[in-house]
Structure formats: structure tokens, C-alpha cells
Known about the structure:
The complex is a heterotrimer of chains A (250), B (312) and C (321).
Chain A: E1 6-15, E2 18-28, E3 33-37, H1 44-52, E4 59-64, E5 67-68, H2 74-79, E6 82-85, H3 97-107, H4 123-135, H5 151-163, E7 169-173, H6 181-194, E8 200-203, H7 207-213, E9 216-221, E10 224-229, H8 231-236, H9 238-244
Parallel strand pairs in A: 3-8, 3-9, 6-7, 7-8
Antiparallel strand pairs in A: 1-2, 1-4, 4-5, 9-10
Helix pairs in contact in A: 3-4, 3-5, 4-5
Chain B: H1 3-34, H2 41-59, H3 62-83, H4 93-115, E1 131-135, E2 138-141, H5 142-164, H6 166-176, H7 178-183, H8 188-210, H9 220-235, H10 240-265, H11 271-296, H12 305-311
Antiparallel strand pairs in B: 1-2
Chain C: H1 7-16, H2 18-35, H3 38-63, H4 72-87, H5 93-115, H6 120-140, E1 150-151, H7 167-190, H8 192-202, H9 204-209, H10 214-240, E2 242-243, H11 250-262, H12 269-288, H13 292-308, H14 311-320
Antiparallel strand pairs in C: 1-2
Helix pairs in contact in C: 2-3, 2-7, 2-12, 3-7, 3-10, 3-11, 3-12, 4-5, 4-6, 4-10, 5-10, 7-10, 8-10, 11-12, 12-13
Amino acid sequence: MAEPILVLDDLVKSYGALPVTDHVSLTVEATEIHALIGPNGAGKSTLVGEIAGSITPDHGRVFFAGREVTRLGVAARARAGLARVFQTSHVVPGFTALENVQLAALAVEGSSFRFVRPVSSEKHARDAAFAALERVGLGRRAEVAAAGLAHGEKRALELAMGLVQKPKLLLLDEPMAGTGREETEHLTELLAGLSGQVPMLIVEHDMATVFRLATRITVLISGAGAITGTADEVRADPTVRSAYLGEGTP
Amino acid sequence: MSFTLLAVQILNGLQFGLILFLVAAGLTLVFGVMDFVNLAHGVQYMLGAYLTSVAVAKTGSFGLGLVLGLGGSLGLGFLFELLLFRHLTRRDHLEQVLATFAVILIVTDAVKAIFGAAPLPLPVPHGLDGAIELMPGLAYPVWRLVVIASGLAVAFLLWFLITRTRTGMLLRAGSTHPAMVSALGVDIDRVFLFVFAFGAMLAGFAGAMAGPILSVEPAMGDTVLILAFVVIVIGGIGSVRGALVASIVVGLVDTLGRAFATDLLRLVVDRSTAAQAGPAIASMAIYVLMAIVLVFRPTGLFTGERAWTRAA
Amino acid sequence: MNETRSLPRRLAALALHPATAILGLAAVVVAGQLLGEGFWVTLAARAAILALAALSLSFVLGQGGLVGFGHAAPFGLGAYAVLIAGEHGIRDILALLPLAFLAGAAFALPTGALALRTRGVYFIMITLAFAQMAYFVFAAMSGLGGDDGMGIAGSATLLGWKFLRSESNLAWLAIGLLAAASLFLHAATRARFGFVLRAARDAEARTAALGYSVFRTRLVAWALSAGIAGLAGALMAEQTGFVSPALMSWHRSGELIVMVVLGGARRLSGAVVGAILVVLVEEFLGQTTEYWKLGLGLLILAVVMARVVDFGSLLRRRADG
């Protein structure tokens, strides 16, 4: 059995007296899609920050691809293979879709201190970028300025940017946020198609997506990990049911 | 180096610092509340000095002249904001820099054209032009003490206005959540207008008070403006408290540096090197101070999260 | 992308092409030499020198989004490098230029490292403050002429040849360096370096999350542009034969920003066009009135307000009463 790609070991983060991350331990296996769910205010955003490297925990350790990365920042973790898809679309508005993915591709391929060769002539990155766009269904929209893409297309673009970096782990922060029914379905199918090829940690509210995609689910309640298990196990768990009663979508 | 000399320089530094405070206080509020880079603030200081000088010459009374000068500064502040700066408040910083830079060029040259490049007289008012003996052997000019007292009085007034009045509360809210305040029905543009004009008046007041000590000339605002910037960077954008602390520190460091740098250097190097390097090091002193503060606190001493989102 | 463009748009594109302005300057120099109008040569050289400084600023401002109000500092430091080197007997242009570049870059590295940790208003003020520091330090150095400045020891030579005896040679040197810098910076803009710089300008968090070191990229761009400004300063010292702290004044920094913005901040070539415009305006205004700064100020203000004030809605509001 392969080593887990991400290990969170007893993470604690407090803002003042309030523990926002309360002794959370979690692993993501090399072949799974792991979903992280929890009611509003459960501390999901903070935990995502601690995984991505934008927030340093007060206590505990983060291991990625076998290495301890607790003290490493965002860029360093990204270079190590942790690709993050943001909650609000964070693409470069002035660049085309293709250029956005090229930007992602070039980040993991040599130094950015190149002054002479035009980016457009970097064939390898360009081809990889195009392939990634095709993979998410944006092949025909390659030359469109990113600012002009529909919301769902921007999410797919973000996904392409993550994929082109051949990541060791895809960290998806509420990928379905703000997408309509059709776009949600499309994105869900995309992700399902990638299942097994790249491990994913998805933080989501949309339960349909979660139950459709996730191999395992961790439920976060009030900053602490309440339970980790398969979809059926989580659905049946009484703590989870009481925490979610009145929340809406089952 | 005697104790008397040190005491005099410390008082001078305090006085200079408080003048800087008067300029920086208005500026830091404009930066913080309105996110507006106002390079023309130094010109307000200069105009305050000029208006007061002219008014004093015409009326023969410093008190009346000062009041007229303040009124004029306030009026000019309103004018600038309504005619020009209002359109720039929500724009790119680059546009603001250019427009206010242009205003400096225009006003400075206009003043030169009207009054000439030679300094205008602004004498210390009668009765306040002597010196009093603070301690045996320590005589200090009365006017400088008046400047110190006024600076401290304004500091207290600002503290009161900001923390104890409704306007002050609006100001603090407006700087962190302008959209929210607007949504609550407050005319945020009106608040901005008053903040701007009030800041302009403070700068004008500083110019009028400094006039008798420094000389009233067209470029007098330039140096003060840069120092006010240093003060704001050290103190933190938007913080009047920071402006007070930082301006006193800057005033002291600059004054004491200029007075004693050469002497202090002579303790380590020979006379001629010290004479050469002293002035250079003295002029660097406050910038080095600024750099040191920046290493530990990139957003100044008295700011937090808010300053970051504002500056982004 | 491939649509045919109308003639006016094509002409505009041609006019703004970097080569056009530079070739224009060259043409003026040739014409000046042929017609014996030394003044044209001097003016063209001055424009080329300032265009070089403005070009370097345009790179960090347009591509990097870094609004720095202290670019006159590395410019002046390049000039002082020539002065100081001259005092030590170094007169060869092949040594002076690298020294000037290093002077600018050496100033930019520590100050940039501090300034680049900040944004927005802070960044503008800090860059201004550091430039003022340089101004005051050199103004206090009586050995270098202090406030008044000092003449350089003698014109630069090229391997012994006193090539700057001829005014037009300086103009050609300036134009040559401008062309070289222009080529290099344009290439950098199209290459990875400019690509990442622009991405960081428009979506900083994203760019960092992809694995790029935004701080390092910006610092290198900052030092590079300061070095080029230093080169321009060195040329300025050679042209006027005189170096004073006024070269580093913040009015000069402001002037450089005006040049960049006037010609169009988003395009590198705009800086060259802007520089030529400002030099011409200053010259024309300077001959007309003593208060030419007032005229320049009014011009700048008019340009900015025209862009900023939405006259359409103002008029409509008036009409509605």
C-alpha cells in the first residue's frame, strides 16, 4: 500500500482563546478523493490555509509527499506538488485561458528568470497547457481572455491550471461555490473522470457532489475532526446528523 | 557639551516634531480614511504660512492674521477637494500621484509669480518674542514654547474628536468599512470632504506657527512633506496616535542628530572625517530609523490587519 | 486577433512602435549635424537620456505595477558614480557605464528589499523617502560639492580616444543605449520574466500559489531598472559635465513618472514617446516663460482630469437640474 500523500498530525490553531483547529489529524491516501465537510464556522477555511501553507498552526505537523512541510510557505509547497484551486476564481484576468495554464505549467519547469526567449515559443509548456485545457473541456476557449469566461468555465480553468502542474495532490477549496446546477454537474463529472489519476482533497458544502465523488469523508465540527469514513458511514453517524439537522441539503 | 545645550536641542526637537505632527495628522487621516495619496499636502502648509503672513501684514495683528490664515486654509481645502480631488478618491494611486504632483508645480510657481521667490516676513507676535528662563542658565524662546503647547493642544483635541464624538466614530467606521457606512445612509463623500478640509487647515496652522521660526518661502512645504511621509510610514497609515509618537521621535532624532552627529563622530574618527561625514549621517538618521521600523513592522507601529487591506 | 485593422489604427500602431521614436531621434541628430544645428543634437541627446531613464521606470511600473516615486535616485547615483570615478582617475566609458549601472542597482537592492514588502500608499511613500535620503546624503557631502554640486573632472574617453569631444557622439551613444535597452526590455516583457511579473501584478496571490517567488521576481526587476536608470544618469553627467543632488530630487522622480504615463503606462515604448514630449514641452515653455513649471503642471493636471472626470455624467446631471 502506497504512503499517504498528505498527513495532518494533531494540528491546533487558536485565535485568542478560541481554538479554530482543535487537534485535527487526517490522512489523504495516494489514490483517493477525500472530502472535508462541516457546518459553517467549523474551521474548514483555516484548515485549508494550514494545508496550503498560508496559515501556520500553533501546534502539530503537516507532512506532504513524505516530507514535513509545516514551516514551508505557499510557494514552496506549490513547488513541491501541492496544487490549490481557490474558492473564488483567482485567475489572471488579463491573460487568455491558455496563458493562464501556461503560467501554471512554467512554474514547475525551470527558472522564471528568463529574459530572452518569448513565452509563446516555449512549445513544451504551450502543448501541456493546451492538453490540460482539453482535459477540462475548455479547448475551444483557449484564446479567450480569462475575465470573459463564465463562472463555471473559470472553475474549470483553475482545475486545468492545477492539473498541468502534474500535482501530487489537488487541494480544491469549495470548487462548486457559486456554480449553477448544470455547471456543477459538469464539474463533478470532470472530477469523477480524474478519480484515481491524482489524489484530491475537496472541501465542499454541496453534498450531492461529496457523496458522488468521495472515497472517504472527514467531518469537521467546531474545529475538531468528528469522524472519518465512507459516505455510508458518515451518513449514518448520529453526531453528524445532529450537527447538520436544519442545514438543508442532505 | 553641556546639559543646557542638550536641553535646548531636546526642546527644539519636540517643537519640530509637533509641527510635523500637525502636518502628518491630517495627511495620515486622508491616506487612511480616503486611501488618497495627497502629495499636495505640503502646499497646504506653505499656503497657510503665506496667507497668515499676508493677513498679519494687512491687519497688523498676529491673532487676527492667524484666524484669517486658518480660514483661508480651510477654504482652500474645501476648494481643492470639491474641484479636483473628489474625482480622484476612488482612482488608481498613480493618477492621484500625478494630479497632486501637478498641483504642487502649479501652486508653487503661482506663489513665486505673485510673491516672488524671496522669503516673506512673518514676525513672532509682540509679547511672545522674548525668552523665558526655564531653569537657571536655560533660556528658551517663548514662541517655541507656544508652538509646543499648541501642538499638544491639537493632539488632545484630535483625540477627543476621534474617540468621543459621533463624527470620529463615523471616521473610524468609514476607514474600515466605507461601503457599510454608505449603506447606512451616511454621505461618505461629505465625511471625506470635512476630513480633507480639516486636515488642510491643520497643515495651514502648522505653516503659520512655523513661519516665524523657519522662513516663509515657496518651497517650504517640500521638506516638511517628505518628513511627514516618514512619520506616517513609521507611525502607521490612518493612526493619529502613531503620527504623534512618530513625529516626536522623528523630530528628536533629526534635531539631535544634526546638533550632535559631528561631535559624536569625533569620538571615533578624526576631526576632518567627522566634519565631512557628520552632516551626511545626520541627514540619513531618520531614514535609517524608518528602515529599521520597516524591517520589524512593514505597516508601521500602530496598525494591524486594516492597513493591509487598505494598502492592497 | 487576425482581423484587418483600419488605416488610422495602423498608423497609430506604427507611431507607437518603439523603433519609430528612436529612429525619429536618430533622424533629428543626423539633420542637426547636416544643417549645423547643434541645439537639435543637444536636445535629441537629452531626450534620449531621459527616455532611457523613463523606459526603465516604465518596466517596473507598467509590467510590475510598482508605482515608485524615487526613480531619480538611481539616476542621480549613476551620475555621481561618474563624478567619483573621475576623481579617482577613471575616465573610460567602458568602465564608467558598468559602475553607473552597479551604483543604481546597489541602491535598489536594499531599499527595494524593504519597500517591496509593502504595497500601495506605503510603497509610494517609502520609495520617495529613500530617494530623499540619497538626496540629502549627497547634498551633505561637501567633498562632492554639497548642495551646489560639482563639475566632472573631464569628458569620458573610449580606450583613450576623446570621443565625446563631438557632441553628436554623445547623442549616438545615448540613442544606442536607448535602443539596446529597449530591445532587451521588450524581449524580457515577452519572455518568462515579464510574463510572471504581469501575472503577479494582476493576480498576486494566484501567482504565488502556483509556486513563483513574487518577491524575488520583483526585486530583480527593481534592481535591473535602477541599473538602467544609473546608465542614463551617467550619460547625463557626461552631457552637462556637471553633477548635483538636484538630479535626485523628487521633482525629477515626478517628471519621470509623468513621462511614463503621458506616453501610455501599459506599453514600454510609451515612456520614450512621453520623454520626448516632456522634453519638448519643457523646452518650448521654458523659452516662453520663467514659470514653465506652472504650465507643465497645468498640462499634467489637464491630462489626468480628462481621463478621470466623467464629463458625460456631469453634464447630464447639470441638465437634469
